[in-house]
Design a protein that fits this description.
This protein is mainly α. 75% of the residues lie in helices and 1% in strands.
Length: 494
């Protein structure tokens, strides 16, 4: 069903009523299924590569993954802005504006990803060299990226469509977008890697095909199932871009901080040889699979908080933050237990030896606990981005990636590759804890405004979204009366 608006009344948004913990569980759970599927495919790819018995190839996957991480972080940052602005617009009952902004967001995502993706092709060699890749490892990584960087627009479109579906509460279809792409990759990979003997080139071809599927299914859900896209209005594009940039700009900077920190860690570990890089690459792909529910919270919490902010239900915003953290703690505890018990199986499965095996065992036994704090940072960042304070996300993520990573990892490097990962975990935990404290204080301050019907709108770092030519852009930050005309028509039931 499309977003509907009839006779001045707007269908009630999904997240402004009902159990917040249930909303968090459904959104995070369905989001995690898609995310885990995607990351599981990456992990399986590494497993297939490990079967070839070539440490240089496995290390190349690690170096290429850092470059790909920069690209994915750009797209994720843009999708955070898209989900936040569209969710608030839907929560405020402005369906026409939501459609127009959705259309503008896809245009802007495509333009940005074309420039960044194809532009990267000119800098692959110096970028990989800066990361510490040398010889055959650097050559393999560059060949892989030369194929995949030009399809970044497809990845961006698919992710943007998934974000639009989440913004109206259609968690199932949002999950299907990523799940289908992951399924295609899982089927093609063994055929291309082993059946046709293409090795790492087969992984690259599979990635391209899966991105076509991701974009195609995402556009079908947005355009056909929900009819979320309005007519493209060139005259409104600049205003929509400013509104999206008010959240997406800081969010992009926020998300780029993580790969910057990862790049430094990769460079620090590279000095200990291909085995150490291969071990770190395995951990990088194992983490999002094991902690998929935690990673999914970033996208799941945002629309829930944003819709309640748009509807003026500030106490529910505070409760949503609390329930999200409770969900995160439980998820991390279970994942850590599974990793600790299954580390032997993982080490044997990836044919890890020497330093690679030591790093994987260290992560599964001890370092996985740092996700209690990393998960807190994910939730806090989602609240900052969707409650009008995206600059705080930027501050905490860059703080973690610089002050929380570089000095700690540098110190740890004096004690071997394991010391690098230990230092990174300690610094990350400090900033995660600080972010959670600030997020709770902001939510508590916001909740105090609700008892008064005439309470002023929350002070935001940036405007929420522009309205049509007949509206006021700042109005979306102010609670609007919502007339309930029937069941929610803007999203499929989770």
């Amino acid at each position: 069903m499309p977003i509907t608006e009839t006779a001045g009344a707007v269908e009630r948004p999904r997240f402004v009523s009902g159990s917040l913990l249930r909303h968090v569980c459904v959104m995070a759970g369905t989001g995690a299924i898609g995310l885990i599927a995607v990351f599981a495919v990456d992990l399986i790819n590494l497993f297939y590569i490990s079967l070839l018995g070539e440490k240089e190839t496995a290390a190349a996957v690690g170096f290429a993954g850092v470059v790909g991480f920069f690209h994915a972080s750009l797209c994720i940052g843009l999708t955070i802005g898209i989900a936040a602005v569209v969710s608030r617009t839907v929560g405020a009952g402005r369906a026409v504006d939501a459609r127009r902004i959705a259309t503008s967001s896809l245009v802007l995502m495509t333009a940005a990803s074309v420039v960044v993706g194809s532009g990267t092709a000119f800098f692959l060699h110096p970028a990989l060299h800066a990361l510490g890749a040398e010889g055959e490892t650097a050559r393999l990584a560059q060949r892989y990226l030369a194929v995949t960087v030009h399809t970044l627009p497809l990845l961006g479109l698919g992710m943007a469509c998934s974000a639009l579906l989440r913004s109206i509460g259609d968690a199932r279809r949002s999950m299907t977008v990523t799940l289908a792409a992951a399924f295609v990759t899982a089927v093609l990979d063994p055929i291309l890697i082993f059946g046709f003997g293409l090795g790492l080139d087969g992984v690259a071809i599979s990635a391209v095909v899966s991105r076509f599927v991701l974009a195609g299914i995402g556009l079908h859900g947005v355009m056909v199932k929900h009819r979320m896209l309005g007519r493209f209005e060139a005259a409104q594009l600049a205003r929509d871009a400013r509104a999206l940039a008010s959240v997406a700009g800081p969010a992009v900077l926020t998300n780029l901080a993580t790969p910057v920190g990862a790049a430094f860690v990769t460079h620090a570990i590279a000095q200990f040889g291909p085995s150490a890089v291969a071990g770190a690459a395995t951990i990088d792909r194992l983490s999002p699979v094991a902690f998929g529910l935690v990673y999914a919270l970033s996208g799941a919490v945002g629309p829930i908080l944003a819709q309640n902010l748009g509807a003026g239900q500030y106490r529910r915003v505070q409760e949503g933050l609390r329930d999200s953290l409770l969900f995160m703690v439980a998820s991390v505890a279970v994942a850590w237990l599974v990793l600790a018990l299954g580390q032997g199986v993982l080490i044997r499965a990836f044919s890890a030896e020497g330093q690679a095996a030591e790093l994987i065992a260290l992560f599964c036994t001890w370092l996985a606990a740092s996700f209690f704090f990393s998960g807190g940072l994910f939730v806090a960042n989602a609240s900052f981005n969707n409650l009008g304070h995206p600059l705080l996300s930027t501050f905490f993520n860059w703080g973690r990636a610089t002050l929380g990573t570089i000095p700690f990892a540098w110190w740890g490097s004096h004690h071997g590759a394991a010391g690098v990962l230990i230092g990174q975990a300690v610094g990350s935990s400090i900033f995660g804890l600080l972010a959670v404290v600030v997020a709770f204080r902001l939510a508590a301050k916001l909740a105090q405004q609700e008892p008064s019907m005439k309470a002023p709108a929350p002070v935001l770092d940036a405007p929420v979204a522009p309205t049509s030519a007949h509206g006021d852009a700042a109005a979306l930050a102010t609670p609007q009366p919502v007339a309930v005309t029937g069941p929610v028509a803007s999203a499929g039931a989770p």
